[in-house]
Amino acid sequence: MHYEGHIIRPPSEADSILLQVTVGCSRNKCTFCGAYKEERFRIKPESIIMEDIAFAASHFKKKRRLFLCDGDALILPQKRLLKILTDIQDKLPWVTRIGAYANVKSLDMKTAEELKELRAHGLGISSMGLETGDDITLTKINKGATAEKAIRMGQKARAAGLKLSITVLLGIAGKARSGIHALETGRVLSAIDPEYVGALSLMLVPGTPLYDDYASGEFQLPQPLEMLDELKSILINTNLSRGLFHANHPSNYLPIKARLPRDKEAAIALIEKALGGKVTLRPEWMRGL
After folding, report:
1. Bridge-partner residues for 43, per DSSP?
2. Is the dihedral of CA 146, 133, 221, 24 positive or negative?
3. What is the rounded CA–CA span in Å between residue 189 and residue 130?
């Protein structure tokens, strides 16, 4: 397989075939992210992608899932993306689910009918970084979208039959807007009603604008218990018809796996025990991106 730069995929795609169709991220301006800072976004040549599909067909016959990398594969023009999906279906018929990262911009660029067409050709799930539902924080971190537009695009993807996995970031609003961030994030998640939610805890990356703000004292990073309090508030304010809410990423201080609404109260009770010192938190040296 021909890989370039940093290959990033959701934790749930750990056992998937990773097919890199773009290099980098089409936005690459978020103040907290250092993943693609040295990489100029580009679409990989069709010949290379086809070679990798052929390689996967020969070497990954037991893999049932495939993920399109990098940061925003959905940005590909519709015809090119459809050809890739069709070739995957033809050459890897045993693959039962294809996933890709998406953002508000790329979802907005696709019509509802185009998203349905992608779904019909095997795209089953899109992973989207919401980070927060607080518009002021979205502006500060240069996310390039408003909460209401994120809701509309998320609802559009769901209406097209795509499953959604949405990531939110504990601590991203700093100490000053922590409560508002939690409340608004729960509101946006409830409006979209995704199948999966993943809560990660912010880890500052040297060389990013947000790290510089932290170093200068402009940004105050919430402490572990303050992040847990955020997580509790997000859970309280998130109402999913039937979805998995996970906070079991290595960055988190307290692993949480809950199916909402069934496990909501139990998850909140676990967080309250941790806040009260009755549950041991993950130490800093065990945390990671």
Report:
1. 22
2. negative
3. 9
**pLDDT of 132-174, one tens digit each?**
999 999 999 999 999 999 999 999 999 999 999 999 999 999 9
Residue 122 and residue 85 in contact, taking contact as beta carbons nearer than 8 Å: yes
Of 36, 29, 37, 32, whose CA–CA distance to 214 is shortest?
Answer: 32
Residue pair 244/166 in contact (Cβ under 8 Å)? The answer is: no
Q: Is the pTM of this model over 0.85?
A: yes
Domains contained in the chain, CATH given: 11-282 (3.20.20.70)
The gap from C-alpha 82 to its chain's centroid, in whole angstroms, comes to 22
Contact 129, 138 (CB under 8 A): no
Longest dimension (CA), the chain: 57
What is the distance, to the nearest Å, from the Cα of residue 168 to the centroid of all Cα atoms in its chain?
7
Residue 41 contacts residue 23 (beta carbons within 8 Å): yes
Contact 251, 286 (CB under 8 A): no
